[in-house]
Every structure is written in structure tokens, then in C-alpha cells.
């Protein structure tokens, strides 16, 4: 595998000021003509003009109107190098004309231009543009694009590209064309093209300086009743970015196109976002509360990219977190401001633990700015995105909200229209705040999750509390890769913001008077540091890492009683939740150690704590209570075991969790019943915060009731589950169906069959049907997943189907994926091998399920190794998969 290194970055020898494209879509092929206005880069290294091109059939190549001859250029599988024009040296400025043919109908990778149900769609990030036209496909080449699209009018009435529609017309009897011009220079990964038959919802938005922006959401015919929420999310995002960051929309048109075949979530192409239907379409009876929230978040995310990503873009792909970490931070802030900030934060932290911490501990570990990669598509990771957002959040925490805003202003003043590095972003934050961030920069180059050790000590005689903090960060697989490549490894302590509160016995904050919200932000910059607090009237319980102020593992030996105190009184909602999670993990891991059988390991105090949270949820904040009552995920418990040097036992983890659920259901049945009754809906469905929280807690209660003994289950719970399968909203329906999917009862089959009959024509709902079955805890799930791959509802070419069935099984059903018989591993390998030639990006994502294989017992390891070696040994293995599997086998 060829590896690309950050240290090899060199500025381009040639710049492209303009690209004029002409794309003619025909039934048999698509012809793409490009006119590139080229200029020698005065700051470049000199040399030939290197263009990328992949699966392009070159038809014509000329320079300033002169056809090039063979000796003027070289062409291989992925590059076209222009050296001369008829033997003479290249002038400093010229226009290069190219004409190629491509075959979007057979493009199954969904990168470049491809066919989907309703027409042709493009995806260019990271390196899809080279599959459309010859071009230097690197983000530091920013050009002004114009694009003329030509196609059959009847089949493809909408012809869309970036920017403004400047002309259109007909061509003969059946064809038509449209010409678009984007007024802003952009890298080619932000180019987009759509030629399709779609319905459109139109609206408009007036920016604060009075620009009228025409908004349009395009969806497959017949789905207009499912795009209202997306449109309103877009308008909310536009006003929020004006208010919070002073950032306005800079175009007259903003279009969102939804397509059912899409590798990622969505793409921020300038003025023409292309979205996975999953993040656009919603109606109460087809979409869940979390679908609605995800639509808000992703619409906001792509919109926010217009400034953080498009106006200021990345110099090279190593800087991906420059735009992604920052934009995730921005979408999290948007969610926090428009929904509940506590619930938003809790959900982000949970996601970070489930997806990013294991990545940091596994064979693909990398810093938010890696220094090497074989396939850039493998680095659209939880680390680059979610940990990247945590790093931006730490800057925000350290310098404060106002300085952060000044830093953003300065970043745009300095870099608007440029392709820059993470370093430039940190420099703007440093200059705006005056805080020295040189040590903080280490977060950009260090992989792994640091351990933060805390020790508290109270001296009653002098009313002094002393907190000793130490940090450590063990080398990861990444350092090993650096070493193998002979690259320098960075060392030294990190700059960690530790938000701290001291909770007194009466529940009040000891630091209330000195610090806002009673929270003091400590800067841990050394390996070990002591922090002293005077005038503390009684022994406090320390609340460390409030708001999860740094992405670290906290080692703080607090007693059950101390955690219970925090659960009850901590003024920081995130740490109230965290205290509950720590307590629950402790109990569950005791259950694992006990073999998960009897219930002697379940302390009475834990049952009492759950009881209190339920009471609280019925009276106050149902959403927070629901979050508190979600037990730590099996993956999170697995990482805790691995972190302690233990072999992960997925069976014991599952059993321990299940035993605890049964125990709570038995002990607190009346309370769960009361919650279910009290939280019954009293108004028509709306995905608003209050209702979402009530539904979440009510369905959680129902889930616990379904863990009751058989008599109660049959007599009291089953009728409710079956009735709820016909609720008027998908949130309640899927909660009931998901619960039934875990139960070995006849009703399970009926409910699943009825659901499919009702929803078989609604692709996104069928995905849910696949997913509840893939994540079922019943024995034989691996076999059923395999059977479902043969069902007419499944299509291996459609990423959403693969994600719903296969990835859900591999990533969200750890007990069955890591089944002792190795069936889960074999299933994953079969899919990867079948998919990798068709769609390497999606295949590689499935392959990531093997990341933690070495943490299991020797029998499981040997099953996993067999499958990994089988994949690695296959011929013509895609680079994407080869990198993931190669690292896993290390
Ligand atoms: N840049 C996209 C996003 O994260 C993914 N390709 O929004
Ligand atoms: Zn993004």
C-alpha cells in the first residue's frame, strides 16, 4: 500500500483559476468537457502540470486550441501529466481543454457521478472529482467553476449545479440544458451536479443584511410531505449562525437534494448540498424523534460548512478536522441552543465513548490530524469528527465564549477564500484570546485517550480541599506505525482543561461565589499538579470534568455514596448523569466478575437510585431521567474491561446487563407502571423537547416492563406492545417493535410481518425493520441476518441497507457479532468480500468492526484472524479495505 505523508506536502506547481465544465448526459455514456484556466504558481516548486483522473476515457486533449501530441503528455491509470505543447515549454498561462467519457450508470462506488433511482448525482469529497474530469484533485486548488449540463428533458427535468443559474434552453426535440456559475472559488471536492426528476419544496430566507435567499429541497417524486422539517431546520440554522457567529448566507440560492443511494450522511457542496434521504425525509408516522433530531443536526452541519469548510477550506486532507471538528462543534452548539443543552451534551459524550474511545484504543488509532494515510476515505472517523469537536470545545472552555467568537472572526478575516491548516485555526484563537496555546497544540498530533487521575483530600482543621491531578497517555498503535515509518513521536504532557465543582453535603456548590455556576476551570499542563481551595466549610464531593470538559478517561476512586451524592445534587447535569453511569458500570462489572448469574452483586442503593431518578423524571425533566436510566452500552463496558487489561467477555457483559434489567423490572415494576401511565401522550405528536423526553422515558419504562416475569409479560405487557405497534408515530412504533424483536414469542413474528407489509414501499422505514432484527438479542440472530440478506428488501448496492442490516449487526450487537462460534465474523467477512469491489468505502467501514479483535479470548481471536486473513488474501483487494485489515492484522 502506498502511504501518503503530511511531511511531503508541497504547494502545487500550477494553479487553476477557472474551470468551465460541460457535461452531456446520454443514455450510453456521459461526455465531460473541461476548460481549465491554468497559471504557473509563483510560489510553487515548478515542473509539469499534474492532473488526476480515474476511469476517464480521454477523447481529446488540447492546449490553447492546439491538440497535444503523445510526447507532450503521459497518461496512466490515475494521472495525466502535461509537459509540453508540441514539444515546446509550457507558457505561464494557458487554457487546457479536455474531453472525456465516463460511465455513471456502472459507477457502484457512489463516488464521482453516479446513477440512482431518480437520476444522476455526484459525490466528490474526498477524491470523487477525478472520476468526472481531469483536474488537480486537491483542496488547495481553488477555482471559479461554471457548469453546463445537458440531458433528456423528460427524464431529467432538473439540471442543477453550484451557484447561480445563468442560462438555460432546449436542444433539439427532447433535450435541454442549463448553465450554472458559482461566484466563489472553491476546491473541486465541493463541486456538485444533479440531473434528475424530483419534486421540490420552495421557500426563502432573508439574511440580516437583507439578501433574499431562495431555498429549495428536492426529493424523490411523491415525498413532498416529508420535507417540511428539513426546510424548517435549514431556516433555523441560518438564523442561528447569524446570531451566534455573525455568519450570513452568501449566495442567492441554497438547494438541498435528497438521494437514497449515498455513502455518507450528507455533503456540503457549495449552494447545492446533496443528502442521504435519511437526513431529509420525515413524517411523524415514518420518522422517530431521534430521526428528527438528526435531521436538524445534519442540515445544520452542512449549512455551517458554508463558512467552516467552504469559504475557508483545508490545505490538504490531513487537515480534515479543521473543517469537520469545528463544524461538529458548531452543530453541537446549535443543538444545545435549540434543544436541551444537557441532553445534547450527554448524547455527544455517550457517542464519543461508544465510537471514538475504542477507535483510539484499536489498530486504527490516529490523532485528529494524522500524518499519514493510505486511503483518505478511511479517515472520516469518530476521531477526526467527534474528538476533533472535543478539541475545539476545549479551546472554547479555556478561552471562554467571547474570546472564542473573536477568534472565529479573526480566523475569517485572515483566511476567507484560503485553504489553510489546523495550525492557522489555533493561531487565530491564540491571538484573539492572548492565551498561549502552544502546549495545547499537542492535542492535534497525539493519538489515544489520556488517563486523568484525581485524588482529593480535605483538611477540616484549616477548611482546605486539595485536588491532585495527574495525566498519562500510553502509546497506541499509531505510535507504532510512526516508528515503523521512521517518523518522530511527540511527547510531553497535554494541556487539559478540567472543569471542577465542589459539592457540599447540603448539595450546594462550594465555589459558587468565586466562579460562574460554581465551576472553576483548572488548566492541567504538567504530569502532576496540585490545586488548593481554601474556605471550604465542610468536606465536599468533587465533581471533576463538569460538562465532560476533556475527552479523557477519569480515574477517580469515589465511593458509591459519593457518586450517589453527585447523582442527587451536582448542579452540572452532565456530571449527574456521569455519576450514574460510573455507578452503573461499577455494578455491571461486578456482575461480569460474578458471572452475571444471581443478583447478589446488585446493591440495594443502586435500585434506590433508579427509583429516585424515575420519580424525578415523572415530576421534572423526563428527557434527563431517560438518559440517566440508559445503562452503559455493552461496547462501553467492553472497553472498560480492556482498559483494565482483562479479556473482553461479550457473553458475560450481556448477561450482567440483562440480569440487572430483570432485577430492576421486578423490584420497580410499580414505578415503571406509574411512569408509563403518567407519561401518556396528551397532545398530538410533535418532535418538541418536552414530548421527546416524555416518550423516551415512557418507552424506557415499557422496555423494563417487558423484562418482567412471563405471566406479567403475557398478561399486561404484550397487549400494550402489540397495540403500540399501531401508534400514530414511528417513535412509539419502533420502541414497541424493537422490544418485541428481543422476545421469543409468537407475537414477534406477527408484528414484524405486519410492519413489513405496511411499510415495504418506504425505504427508510424498511431500514428500521432490518435494523431491529439485526440488533436483536435472541439466539440465532447472525443466521437471521444472513437470511435477511437474501430478502427482497435487502440490496447490497444500497449503503443504507448495508448500514441498517450489516453494520448494525457488527457494531451495535456486540454479543452476537462476537459470538463464540465465529458466525458473526464470517458473516462480516462475506459481506466485505462481496462489497469491496463494488463499493470499497462502505466495505471498509464494515471492516472496522474487527478493530478490537485482539481483546477477546483466544478462540474468538482465532475465528477473527481466519476471516481477516481470508479478506487480506483475496485478489484485487480495494485499498480502503486493505488499509483497515492490514492495520488490524498489524
Ligand atoms: N463533509 C461531509 C460532512 O461531514 C462528509 N463528507 O459533512
Ligand atoms: Zn462535515
From TrEMBL:
Q: Which Gene3D superfamilies match?
A: 2.60.40.1840, 3.30.2010.30, Neutral Protease Domain 2, Peptidase M1, alanyl aminopeptidase, C-terminal domain, tricorn interacting facor f3 domain
**What InterPro entries does UniProt report for this protein, alphabetically?**
Aminopeptidase_N-like_N, Aminopeptidase_N-like_N_sf, PepN_Ig-like_sf, Peptidase_M1, Peptidase_M1_dom, Peptidase_M1_pepN, Peptidase_M1_pepN_C, Peptidase_M1_pepN_C_sf
Residues of the Peptidase M1 alanyl aminopeptidase Ig-like fold domain: 448-556
**Keyword list, A-Z:** Aminopeptidase, Hydrolase, Metal-binding, Metalloprotease, Protease, Zinc
Domain (Peptidase M1 alanyl aminopeptidase C-terminal): residue spans on this chain: 560-889
Name the source's superkingdom: Bacteria
Q: Where is the Peptidase M1 membrane alanine aminopeptidase domain?
A: 230-443
Reactions catalysed: Release of an N-terminal amino acid, Xaa-|-Yaa- from a peptide, amide or arylamide. Xaa is preferably Ala, but may be most amino acids including Pro (slow action). When a terminal hydrophobic residue is followed by a prolyl residue, the two may be released as an intact Xaa-Pro dipeptide
The Swiss-Prot or TrEMBL record lists the needed cofactor(s) as: Zn(2+)
GO process annotations (BP): proteolysis
Q: What is this protein called?
A: Aminopeptidase N
Amino acid at each position: 500500500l502506498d502511504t501518503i505523508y503530511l511531511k511531503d506536502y508541497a504547494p502545487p506547481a500550477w494553479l487553476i483559476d477557472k474551470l468551465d465544465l460541460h457535461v452531456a448526459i446520454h443514455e450510453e455514456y456521459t461526455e465531460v468537457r473541461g476548460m481549465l484556466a491554468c497559471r504557473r504558481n509563483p510560489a510553487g516548486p515548478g515542473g509539469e502540470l499534474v492532473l488526476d483522473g480515474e476511469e476517464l476515457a480521454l477523447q481529446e486533449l488540447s492546449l490553447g486550441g492546439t491538440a497535444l501530441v503523445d510526447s507532450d503528455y503521459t497518461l496512466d491509470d490515475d494521472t495525466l501529466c502535461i509537459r509540453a505543447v508540441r514539444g515546446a515549454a509550457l507558457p505561464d498561462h494557458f487554457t487546457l481543454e479536455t474531453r472525456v467519457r465516463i460511465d455513471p450508470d456502472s459507477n457502484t462506488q457512489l463516488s464521482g457521478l453516479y446513477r440512482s433511482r431518480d437520476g444522476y448525482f455526484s459525490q466528490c469529497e474526498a477524491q470523487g472529482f477525478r472520476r468526472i474530469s481531469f483536474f488537480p484533485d486537491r483542496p488547495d486548488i481553488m477555482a471559479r467553476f461554471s457548469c453546463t449540463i445537458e440531458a433528456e428533458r423528460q427524464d431529467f427535468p432538473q439540471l442543477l449545479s453550484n451557484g447561480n443559474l445563468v442560462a438555460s434552453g432546449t436542444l433539439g426535440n427532447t433535450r435541454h440544458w442549463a448553465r450554472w456559475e458559482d461566484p466563489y472559488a472553491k476546491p473541486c471536492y465541493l463541486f456538485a451536479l444533479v440531473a434528475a426528476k424530483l419534486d421540490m419544496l420552495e421557500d426563502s430566507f432573508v439574511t440580516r443584511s437583507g439578501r433574499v435567499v431562495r431555498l429549495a429541497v428536492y426529493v424523490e417524486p411523491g415525498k413532498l410531505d416529508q420535507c417540511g422539517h428539513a426546510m424548517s431546520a435549514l431556516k433555523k440554522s441560518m438564523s442561528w449562525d447569524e446570531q451566534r457567529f455573525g455568519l450570513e448566507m452568501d449566495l442567492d440560492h441554497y438547494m438541498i437534494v435528497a438521494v437514497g443511494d449515498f455513502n455518507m450522511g450528507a455533503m456540503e457542496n457549495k449552494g447545492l448540498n446533496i443528502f442521504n434521504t435519511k437526513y431529509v425525509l420525515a413524517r411523524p408516522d415514518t420518522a422517530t424523534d431521534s430521526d428528527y433530531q438528526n435531521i436538524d443536526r445534519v442540515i445544520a452541519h452542512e449549512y455551517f460548512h458554508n463558512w467552516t469548510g467552504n469559504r475557508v477550506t483545508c490545505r490538504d486532507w490531513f487537515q480534515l478536522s479543521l473543517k469537520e471538528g469545528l463544524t461538529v462543534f458548531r452543530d453541537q452548539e446549535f443543538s444545545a441552543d435549540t434543544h436541551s443543552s444537557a441532553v445534547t451534551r450527554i448524547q455527544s459524550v455517550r457517542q464519543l465513548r461508544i465510537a471514538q474511545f475504542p477507535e483510539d484504543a484499536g489498530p486504527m488509532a490516529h490523532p485528529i490530524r494524522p500524518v499519514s494515510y493510505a486511503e483518505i476515505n478511511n479517515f472520516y472517523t469518530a476521531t477526526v469528527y467527534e474528538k476533533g469537536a472535543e478539541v475545539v470545545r476545549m479551546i472554547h472552555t479555556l478561552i471562554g465564549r467571547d474570546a472564542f467568537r473573536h477568534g472565529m472572526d479573526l480566523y475569517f478575516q485572515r483566511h476567507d477564500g484560503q485553504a489553510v491548516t489546523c495550525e492557522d485555526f489555533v493561531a487565530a484563537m491564540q491571538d484573539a484570546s492572548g492565551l498561549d496555546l502552544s502546549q495545547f497544540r499537542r492535542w492535534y498530533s497525539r493519538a489515544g485517550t489520556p488517563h486523568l487521575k484525581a485524588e482529593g483530600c480535605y483538611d477540616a482543621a484549616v477548611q482546605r480541599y486539595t485536588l491532585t491531578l495527574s495525566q498519562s497517555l500510553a502509546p497506541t498503535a499509531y505510535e507504532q506505525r510512526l516508528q515503523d515509518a521512521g517518523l518522530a513521536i511527540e511527547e510531553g504532557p497535554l494541556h487539559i482543561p478540567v472543569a471542577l465543582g465542589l459539592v457540599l453535603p447540603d448539595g450546594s456548590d462550594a465555589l459558587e461565589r468565586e466562579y460562574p455556576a460554581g465551576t472553576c476551570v483548572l488548566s492541567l499542563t504538567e504530569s502532576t499538579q496540585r490545586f488548593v481551595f481554601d474556605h471550604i466549610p465542610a468536606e465536599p464531593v468533587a465533581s471533576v470534568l463538569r460538562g465532560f470538559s476533556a475527552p479523557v478517561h477519569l480515574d477517580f476512586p469515589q465511593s458509591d455514596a459519593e457518586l450517589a451524592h453527585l447523582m442527587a445534587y451536582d448542579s452540572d447535569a452532565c456530571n449527574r448523569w456521569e455519576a450514574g453511569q460510573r455507578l452503573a458500570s461499577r455494578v455491571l462489572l461486578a456482575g461480569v466478575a460474578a458471572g452475571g448469574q444471581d443478583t447478589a452483586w446488585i446493591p440495594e442503593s443502586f435500585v434506590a437510585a433508579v427509583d429516585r431518578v424515575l420519580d424525578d423524571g415523572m415530576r421534572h425533566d423526563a428527557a434527563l431521567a431517560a438518559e440517566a436510566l440508559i445503562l452503559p452500552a455493552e461496547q462501553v463496558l467492553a472497553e472498560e474491561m480492556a482498559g483494565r487489561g482483562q479479556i473482553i467477555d461479550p457473553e458475560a457483559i450481556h448477561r450482567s446487563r440483562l440480569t440487572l434489567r430483570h432485577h430492576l423490572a421486578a423490584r420497580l415494576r410499580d414505578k415503571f407502571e406509574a411512569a408509563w401511565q403518567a407519561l401518556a401522550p396528551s397532545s398530538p405528536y410533535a418532535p418538541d423537547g418536552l414530548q421527546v423526553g416524555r416518550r423516551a422515558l415512557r418507552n424506557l419504562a415499557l422496555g423494563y416492563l417487558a423484562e418482567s416475569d412471563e405471566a406479567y409479560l403475557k398478561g399486561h405487557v404484550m397487549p400494550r406492545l402489540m397495540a403500540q405497534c399501531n401508534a400514530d408515530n414511528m417513535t412509539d412504533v419502533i420502541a414497541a417493535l424493537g422490544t418485541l424483536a428481543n422476545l421469543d414469542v409468537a407475537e414477534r413474528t406477527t408484528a414484524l410481518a405486519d410492519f413489513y407489509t405496511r411499510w415495504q414501499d418506504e425505504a427508510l422505514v424498511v431500514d428500521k425493520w432490518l435494523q431491529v432484527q439485526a440488533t436483536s438479542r435472541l439466539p440465532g440472530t447472525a443466521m437471521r441476518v444472513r437470511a435477511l440478506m437474501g430478502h427482497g428488501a435487502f440490496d447490497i448496492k444500497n449503503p443504507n441497507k448495508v448500514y441498517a442490516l450489516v453494520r448494525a449487526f457488527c457494531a451495535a450487537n456486540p454479543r452476537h457479532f462476537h459470538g463464540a462460534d465465529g458466525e458473526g465474523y464470517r458473516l462480516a467477512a462475506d459481506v466485505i468480500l462481496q462489497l469491496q469491489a463494488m463499493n470499497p468505502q462502505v466495505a471498509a467501514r464494515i471492516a472496522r468492526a474487527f478493530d478490537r479483535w485482539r481483546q477477546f479470548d483466544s478462540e474468538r481471536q482465532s475465528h477473527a484472524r481466519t476471516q481477516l486473513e481470508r479478506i487480506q488474501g483475496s485478489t484485487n483487494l480495494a485499498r480502503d479495505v486493505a488499509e483497515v485489515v492490514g492495520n488490524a492484522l498489524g
